[in-house]
TrEMBL record:
Molecular-function annotations in GO: S-adenosylmethionine-dependent methyltransferase activity
Species assigned in the record: Trichococcus flocculiformis
Full protein name: Methyltransferase domain-containing protein
The Methyltransferase type domain, residue ranges: 1-67
Keyword vocabulary terms for this entry: Methyltransferase, Transferase
Biological-process GO terms, alphabetical: methylation
Amino acid sequence: MVEQARERAIEEGLEEKVAFQIADTLELPFEESTFDAVIGESVLAFIEDKSRALSELVRVTKSQGYVGFNECSWIKTPPSSLAKYIFDVLGAVFLTPDEWHGIWKRTGLKEVTMKSYKVRALEQWGYEFRGLELREYFGAWYRFVRLLFTSPGCRRWARKTLSMPRNIFAAFKYFGYGIYVGKK
């Protein structure tokens, strides 16, 4: 993703104005109050200690600055088998809006705004597909098939993925995303 971001910065003529850095969300390599705004998408769902991660993101935000995230969420509590499947396949723990609300409230941020949205399977697939060039799309499938033949880890993951609940599209009754913003 960082490489794609660098390429896009070059395409947009912004390579001299932006910097990309990989860091551990639980221990960011920045001084307190460094940024006017900290934003992210689909990050916190993959971090076990969500409260600690969010506190670290608040730490590096300037006073009067904003922290905002778009995160995968359960719109309503899913069956435990579905939550387990998502964890096994993606390594993610999604929260309900109420669970997210509790974590955000404990950060000390002011003016916390939260909005949840339901995801529709076909719309989501179409959105993701439109964001790719055909070369990228087929290239990803090519790499995946190649890894199926060369990587035992990839084969294990594929077997887990194929052990999906009977009606995986029923997951979209529970699945959505939330936009969460707060002011320091």
